[in-house]
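Example A, followed by Example B.
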Amino acid sequence: MINYSCINQLKTLKDIIRYTTTIFNESDIFFGHGSDNAYDEAVYLILHALNLPDDNLDMFLDANITKNEIRKILYLINKRVTLRIPISYLTEESLLQGYKFYIDKNVIVPRSPISELIQNCLYPWVKNPESITSILDLCTGSGCLAILSALAFQESMLTATDISVEALKIAKKNINYYNLQNRITTINSNLFDDIPIHQYDIIICNPPYVNTQSLNKLPKEYLHEPMIALDGGNDGMDIIKKILKNVKNFLKKEGILVLEIGNEYNNFVKNFQNINPTWVTTINTEKSIMLLNQEQIP
């Protein structure tokens, strides 16, 4: 619990940042939902609570903070430390590739490294971004990958699907925020079950893939996320098997599937010895994202 008696000692923005960073460092919270250290998380939480821009921190460091503002910040710190709630659920927003997305506990916190590939327009596998006219985002969650895809491939129409009705409400909110409602259609569907047959240039999917053993060892922060978006079954391959069984019917002959499997490389190889995908390395991942064309899919 946070000791609110410190309120009289905290005067400036610099004071509250130092104090919050110390509290976060001394706690057993896990960083992995947007930041990887106590200072960055403290600054983000505080600036959000004070409704201050994040690009002019130096300008406000010596500014005095009111007691009510300090109480608001201490309340958020307390929830972060004692309940282990990811910071993005406390602020109801998440940043991915510099873009802001509204979220709540009905969707996982956006963090897919597929976003890095989308920012680069899937180069070199896509030679001409303007040639991409149709994209499917399976398991869209907050809609972040669909939105980033729409912004990257500006000639494309997109379909974003999810099994969760509540997740699609959030996706629609983000789609509307970026004024993409005329280009992104949302469909409530269990994978391909309720999607009209159509051949797409690109299919993107960040499915549930965490295996049962790993799921039981996740830090408490992840337990605030919807299990339906994380749980991939005993070996993490339950959903991936269903995707690979049906995806060929929805992919153009020259189209590509971009599929994230997290840390389940060994389990993938065990289950799909007849598939030899292209493994894509990102800044922080290796053998976590695969690319498949139609010929590579059995």
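Example B, a separate protein, is given below in the same form.
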Amino acid sequence: MYAEPIFLQPVFKDRIWGGTKLRDVFGYDIPSETTGECWGISAHPNGPSTILNGPLQGMTLDEAWQKHRGLFAGQEGNDFPLLVKILDAKTNLSVQVHPDDDYAQQEEDEPFGKTECWYVIDCEEGAELVYGHHAKSKSEFQRMVDDGEWDKLLRKVKIQPGDFVYVPNGTIHAIGAGTMILETQQSSDVTYRVYDYDRKDDQGNTRELHIKQSIEVAMIPHQDADFQPVEHKQDGLEIQKLIKESYFTVYHWNLNGKAENLENSMYLLVSVLDGEGEIETQSGASSFKKGDHFIIPSTVKKFSLTGKASFIASHSTK
């Protein structure tokens, strides 16, 4: 029986809005001074993570999903369902929206749409997000886009470190400049851009917009999602269930000391935001540190954590 955590090598993405905080804060060996994304736990074909340890060392996460489904509670489906990223937004991301599963399958031949959520790791004072809009109908939305009334159309929200934001498919959104987040999402790379601040890439070209698709998939009028975090403590581990919805359940863990006999009924995706320590399973102890990403497979029924650290953990809800 496979009885140890599966540590993963992240994949990095250069982005027009990216910076160097993935190196400066987490110590990653980033490929450029405009590295915007760390795909920490990914089986997506655009950037699959590679397994760093154990019997499956050198295998991609997608290969492990296809060949060793018992590690993932025998969950059905051709595609690994979730993707975990850390994003460094040195400048504003484009204003965008993602489709639901049906639209992605029918229009893009992709297995998943994209519902996501963000944990704000850090941000500059006064940082904000675009979250939703003020249009009451699709015709009003179209008119405001045509007239360039972005300040009137877009709804902006102030943020601070530790905030959690749930972004269901259809939500108009954008991460603002000076923000670092951990994103848990469906394993999808389908994005429709609504507005990109008229900026140009290093070739002098503006990026493609997708106004038609955006209006087709956007939630109009906007409605905030209703959810309530739940907290409890087990030994030295403070556990905050940030959200449980139809695609994923996401937790913030704060470890100070030791927590024993933690149960794992599904399989857990774990990203270390800060600190260090050890995870102990029936096969022995493995050390972890800030910036590590690992999966606790479903074959590990119980585990213990020791150290001082904070994490975002998640699992598929289906």
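On Example B: The two ends are 24 Å apart (CA to CA).
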